[in-house]
Amino acid sequence: MFTKVTHATIWVKDQDEALTFYRDMLGFKVAADNATSMPGYRWLTVAPPQDDFEIALNLATTPEQLAGVGRQGIF
Fold first, then answer.
1. Collapsing DSSP states into helix, strand and coil, what is residue 44?
2. C-alpha distances in angstroms, 69 versus 1, 3, 4, 15, 49?
3. Strands 29-35 and 7-12
4. Mind listing the pLDDT tens digit for each residue in 1-24?
5. Residue 49 to residue 26: CA distance in whole angstroms
6. How many angstroms separate the CA atoms of 67 and 38, rounded?
């Protein structure tokens, strides 16, 4: 049984643009913004004012991921 969710992923076309929206428009704080050992991969997470949840703003690169941008809450 799940007792806690700490991260959720949102696919984005532009991480800098998404960061500007979540940080400047919604008031989220940057929790992590790091280059990784994988070339071209940036681990970027933002967090609302609560302590234990982050949203990963992952760059969409595959056709499936790109198709999901903007539709991730639609079922």
1. strand
2. 29, 28, 25, 12, 24
3. unpaired
4. 888 889 999 999 999 999 999 999
5. 10
6. 23
